Amino acid sequence: MFSDKKPDPPTVGRYPGLGMNLRYHNYHHEGEIYPTAIHYNSVGAESDMLLVREAAMMIVMNQLTDKPDWHVKVFDEAITEKWIQEALALPVDPLYDEIVQHMNPGFRSGAGSGPDRLKYILDRGCLEYCIKELRVKAKFFEKTGLVPALDANATVIKSDTFIDDTLHERLRNAFAKLKEEQKDNPDWHPRTNDMVQNLVHPSLYPLVYGRSRVFRDEVVGVEDAVDKWSGKGEVIPKKPADVPSGYDNRYHINWAVNGSDSHKLFWSDAFQWLPSNVKLMDDGSVKLTSYINNLHPKHSDIYETVEKLIERALPAWDHSVSFVRDWDIVSAGRTEARFPRPENPDDENEENWTPRIDDFTPHDAGEVEYEDVIRDADGELLYDTRKKNAWEEIREPVQPEAPEFKAWDYGVKPGMSLRERFKDLQVIVKMASIELTPDKPTFPAGGWHVEGQMNEHIVGTALYYLDSENVKPSYLQFRMQTDYYQEDWNIGQDAFGWMEQVYGTNLRGGDCLQRYGKIETKQGRLLAFPNVFHHRVSPVELDDKSKPGHRRFIALWLIDPRTRIINTGNVPPQQKNWWMESAFGGLNEGSAKNVPNAVAKLVSEGEPEHAALKAAAESGNPLPEELVNMVQTEADESTMPMSLEEAKEHRLKLMDERTSYQRDAEQSWSGIQYSFCEH
Asked: Predicted confidence band at 21 (pLDDT cuts at 50, 70, 90)?
């Protein structure tokens, strides 16, 4: 697959950005890649173009699996007949609009300027196929508790039963405890109009090149993280990003797998989210071996709860996060479209249209002029251009019929689970609550994005929605990049009008993006999906606008198991208030006089609320002048752990950087366009 020359992969003591090039990605190990869709046209991160009909089938199946006891009812012929009739009665336009991104750049809109809307999408054959597939998925659900909800070339997993009541309640209690801790000073996420409260967020106190202190060895644990390690380590140097060109075997940079062809803003040489290290235990449990960034280790009960959630997320990742081995996708789920490619998609194929031109008679053909017809050498009529033009105005595409059903072999193959392949993983944790009030009743929709930047190497997401109160249903939408290289279609020059209609895209300059549908983010639901999906959140809105409401969730992000990155085992807690509590928590105003005032002044900067240190700064023991000069020379605010004020400044800079990156990424995704006019 790649060069046989394999530089050593990241290991303890050597990480991308610390002892290795920032852009290192372990592509070569056993020829495997965990793909991500940050960079367009990445290996393993592309979808087939899907027929509008197939995307609609996925959407309908997802809706049916939201019904209570669907996995039982799907085997009842009377019930499934009712489902078929309900699906046939679905309004076409809302379904079409969920699939076709006709308002995106590159898609022509307006009468006659782009593919016409389909007048219908689903037929009975499609829905009978769906019922057969749902029966296979029902058996899979009975076995695993998981539902492949949206799946073609990649899979979104959902489950409303996978997190049991005990763990659900423990998570709710964890959120309540952290919210109580923040009651006097909530951490509102910047630029959310005080509607998103961060309880644990990786953008606060991230790795900051040129500021954060690190160890090359992973020495920082959980219980000892603050007392033993806070404030220690060497400052990680800030260096300009090294951007090699083309393929560079030293760094495993290759354009096909997110390397040097990606925009420089896709990587950050300033910041990195910090994952925690997770050991996979022999008894099936997991153990955090380094602290969760921004979750104080004193919350041992919350740590245990997060460990339980990670343990439950592993099977969901097993069934959704795939990897590429020697150009083949290794997955527990579907990896190809249900419908085969049409054999003859050319517009000149009359079988693609109804009515056929031979069966079409214009109501008023009028007198046929000489220039409107084409005759052979004997004067026989070969072609009536006026009739053809009239036929092209009224013809409708014949959509491919549902293929013969073939059950997909869902399930993790022997030896392919994360537990079987790896002894430990890295996971980033986020805990947040969307808080709405009558004055702020709606949180706006988000933009299309994938998780993290390139140097965070995120390959999978697990989301658990643990609490929703007084909010309307909201959704997570999904799409994937498609391949712009479509040279193997058997069509003539500009003869792709039929394809545009049945695939719902503009093949002359349209975006290479394929929508998969949306999934409701309801309370008690676990979602898991690979980072090959672009996704966006729909608005969250109060149901009863006279009362407050909220939606609370926890996100887990899985780091590429093949590329270990700098983590909380390397970076001691950076929170100055944690360090001060550990170092001076027992200090009172009476004992403050024993603290040298020069030291007290230094460490109390940015923490004026610490009364004992304030007293020490004012009346503590003075130091000899030469020691005061030494303290002032060797130690200043930059040598201390970060104050909250400084951390928030870094967070804003990180957010600005990622805003620029997301803008460039979206331009990159939408800038890749179909060019069928060159056929």
From this structure: confident
pLDDT level of residue 599 (50, 70, 90 thresholds): low
Task: Note the pTM of the prediction, 2 decimals.
Answer: 0.90
Q: What is the pLDDT of residues 522-576, one digit of tens each?
A: 999 999 999 999 999 999 999 999 999 999 999 999 999 999 999 999 999 999 9
Which residues, at least 6 apart from 630, have a Cβ–Cβ distance to it below 8 Å?
Answer: none
- Report the 10 Å Cβ neighbour count for 368: 13
Rounded CA-CA distance 470/434 in Å is 12
pLDDT tens digit sequence for 181-203 = 999 999 999 999 999 999 999 99
Tell whether the model's pLDDT for residue 207 goes beyond 90. Answer: yes
> Are residues 281 and 287 in contact, defined by beta-carbon separation less than 8 angstroms?
yes
Q: What residue type is assigned to position 281 of the chain?
A: M
227's CB contacts (< 8 A; 6+ apart) are 582
Beta strands in 18-139 (DSSP E): 19-20, 32-33, 46-47
- Whether residue 567 contacts residue 290, with contact meaning beta carbons closer than 8 Å, is answered with yes
pLDDT band at 513 (very low <50, low <70, confident <90, very high): very high
C-alpha 480 chain-centroid distance: 11
Residue 46's nearest CA partner among 509, 535, 537, 484 is 484
Beta bridge partners of 38: none
Share of the chain above pLDDT 90, in %: 66
AA letter at 599? V
Quick one: tokens of 137? 């998925």
Q: Measuring CA to CA, which residue among 461, 441, 465 is closest to residue 450?
A: 461
Average pLDDT, the chain: 86
**Which neighbouring-strand residues pair with 82?**
none
Here the tokens at position 369 are 């002029």
- Residue 499 CA to residue 633 CA, distance in Å, equals 72
Residue, of 78 and 253, whose pLDDT is higher: 78
Residues in CB range of 288: below 8 A, 6 or more apart = 222, 276, 277, 278, 279, 303, 306, 307, 310
User: Which helix H or strand E contains 394, and what residues bound it?
Assistant: helix 385-394
CA of 590: how far to CAs of 224, 415, 596, in Å?
Answer: 28, 63, 14
Asked if 640 and 576 count as a contact pair (C-beta separation under 8 A), the reply is yes
Which letter, b or e, does each residue of 545-567 get, where b requires 16 or more Cβ atoms within 10 Å of its Cβ? eeebbbbbbbbbbbbbbbbbbbb
Query: CA of 461: how far to CAs of 284, 532, 551, 554, 555, in Å?
Result: 20, 10, 18, 11, 7
Closest-CA residue to 368 (of 387, 395, 341): 387
Q: Residue 436 half-sphere exposure, CB side, CA atoms within 13 Å?
A: 23
Residue found under tokens 């999904």? 478
Whether cis (ω within 30° of 0) applies to the bond prior to 573 is no
Q: Residue 103 pLDDT > 80, yes or no?
A: no
Which value, to the nearest 10 degrees, does the dihedral of the CA atoms of residues 36, 40, 44, 47 take? Answer: 120
Output the CA angle 321-323-325, nearest 5 degrees.
165
Nearest to 60 by CA among 524, 532, 516: 516
Residue-level pLDDT at 249? 44
Average pLDDT (76-92) is 98
